[in-house]
Amino acid sequence: MIKQRQIFHDAYLGALLVKGFDGAVEILAGLIIALTGPNRIYELVFRLTAPELNEGHHPALNALRAGAEKLANGPHHFVIFYLLVHGLLKLGIVVALLKGTARWIFPLASLTLLGFIAYMGWRLSVRWSDWLLGAALFDLLTLALVLNEWRAHGDTRARPSRSKKHLTSRPKPQIQG
User: Fold this and answer.
1) Any domain includes 17
2) C-beta of residue 143 within 8 angstroms of C-beta of residue 114
3) pTM, rounded to two decimals
4) Residues 117 and 149 in one domain
């Protein structure tokens, strides 16, 4: 039982580290797009992918170029807003969960993850994406690990240890007479 708890706890920490790194990358990407502009990003992606695209068929590079082109030619304010807010939420929740001092973060993290999963589910119903499905499944796994950790924290705090000092430090009743 203890070995299984340790495995789940290690998986929880690993998922949090991946989420934290992802949140930091999203914040950085949002800041870069906001500061340099989407056209600059498109030019950079075009320059970096042009030689490889001339040599053969590269679906990942085509997708990268198409994404940069959509960003440059479309409304980019939402993308910047989404990257910054999503990244800050992820990073903030990960830091609070890693501190592990406040139990209120578990329900907040669970609700936030449920919101992300619901949003990704809606987006998948509008337009299918294997990448988005992977992100939604990873969020679902992370949610399960957060809920398990929340339960484990509740188990350890539900059984307070009673020391001898606590038992002997009761106030003595006053006899009036």
Assistant:
1) yes
2) yes
3) 0.72
4) yes
